[in-house]
Amino acid sequence: MNSPESLTAWLNLLEARHARAIDLGLERVEAVRARMALWPRCPVITVGGTNGKGSTCAYLEAILLEAGYRVGCYTSPHLFDYRERVRIDGALLDEARHVAAFAAVEATRGDIPLTYFEHGTLAALWLFQTAELDALILEVGLGGRLDAVNVIDPDCAVVTAVDLDHQEYLGETREAIGREKAGIFRAGRPAVVTDPDPPASLIEYAHDCGARLLRLGGEIAIEVGEGGWTCRVQDQVYRSLPMPSLPGRFQLNNAAAAVAALYVLRDRLPVGMAALRSGLVRAHPPGRFQVLPGPPMIVLDVAHNPQAACALAENLTRLRSPGRHLAVLGLLKDKDAAGVMQPLLPIVDAWYVASLPGPRGASAQALAEVLRAMGAVVADLYPDVASALSAACDNAGPTDIIIVFGSFLTVAAALSSQRNDQP
User: Fold this and answer.
1) Is residue 2 part of a domain?
2) Which of 252, 282, 312 finishes a domain?
């Protein structure tokens, strides 16, 4: 087969090649990893969880960069550009390097079939291995135990908040999902858990596998004071920390996860207080309560499960706006639509419901039926996010807030439409 010559061509090929978009399991990706001899030569932090793992990765990346380290960071999904998934020193790589990485995996895999995510993960590891890194941050794609990222043994594993999501792959209960998340823990190595009420299965697995557990409310403690906060990790106290760049009490948990991970790796990756403080302020992952100043103000959030929607509602309440809240919503079919909508019902005055593209996208009609059954006011149905957002902007007053949420696809479409509308 002639290798594609562009990144877009590679991605199109990989999307069409595997029979199932999600096909969890480590056998295929581990076999190719072994053939390629992909072993990180620097400390690795793997971050899993239902909500908060992207923010935690952003805090870790920003702090380590402020400390002067050469850092690789692998996250997913992306908003606009596939290259967002693989960053070195906080920067995107040029397309040619991605093409070379995909080709290197292709040349090695032989007859082993790989999913889009598996091929991309191996390509990312190949790029990182050629970069002489000081630290590597890997975000779990889905679950943990059977996720492609888990072929790498982390020096520290982090699990943030655990909630119901992707139940068709991970199980129907928090206990089942917690067990899957815990699969990234390793014997004798630190396991940081910052869910304030973690599933028992998560804690039990950490003990059973012999991981060195550091848990929020135990080895990790947070205390909020005037204008800042303190984080204690075992016997180390980090005082006068600035509030994280992202709003919400739950973000302190994510920031504490980053602080704890760096504490347990302090012998290999020492970080001073100045870097810690500036990194917490510098981290700005897009789509996490991202505010576009108005009027009207637009708030973008990738919240797509009930726990994340509760956090979004809490943050909106703290804004104390005198105007209305208009919601632009787009969801995927496999999400708990009612559970995502419920926390916003007391806050939202009118819903602008959009269809998302592709076979996984939920139709505006289907979402509107759920909202109306819950007694919500549905302004209208729209074929896409751009038209829904445009209508909400047309109907919004200067003190109103427009909330765009429900999916990475929803936020990406909104950001694209706003960019296109700028002169």
Assistant:
1) no
2) 282
Residues 6 or more apart from 16 whose CB is under 8 A from it? Answer: none
CA angle 408, 411, 412 (to 5 degrees): 80
Q: Indicate if 115 and 243 belong to the same structural domain.
A: yes
100 and 152 fall within a common domain: yes
Are 117 and 226 part of one and the same domain?
yes
Calculate mean pLDDT across residues 348-356: 96
Counting the structural domains of the chain, the total is 2
The reply to whether 237 falls in a domain is: yes
Task: Tell me whether residue 104 is exposed, middle or buried, using C-beta atoms within 10 angstroms of its C-beta: 0 to 12, 13 to 18, 19 or more.
Answer: middle
Range of the domain at 353: 290-421
Q: Is 154 left (phi over 0), alpha (psi -120 to 50) or beta?
A: beta
Answer yes or no: is 40 within a domain: yes
Q: How do residues 52-80 score in pLDDT, each as one tens digit?
A: 999 999 999 999 999 999 999 999 999 99
List, for residues 282-339, the tens digit of each pLDDT value.
Answer: 998 888 899 988 789 999 999 999 999 999 999 999 887 889 999 999 999 989 999 9
Mean per-residue pLDDT for 408-415? 94
- Mean pLDDT, residues 203-228 taken together: 95
pTM: 0.93
In a domain, residue 70? The reply is yes
What amino acid occupies position 33?
A: R
What pLDDT shows up at residue 342?
A: 96
Handedness of CA 89, 96, 420, 364 (dihedral sign): negative
Classify burial at 66, counting beta carbons within 10 Å of its beta carbon; exposed 0-12, middle 13-18, buried 19 or more: buried
Does residue 270 share a domain with residue 305?
Answer: no
Above pLDDT 70, what percent of the chain?
97
Q: Which of 282, 303, 336 represents a domain boundary (last residue)? A: 282
The DSSP bridge partners found for residue 353 are: 329, 381
The answer to whether 376 touches 345, Cβ cutoff 8 Å, is yes
Look up residue 136 and give its two tokens. 């590597």
Tell me whether strands 236-241 and 220-225 are parallel, antiparallel or unpaired.
Answer: unpaired
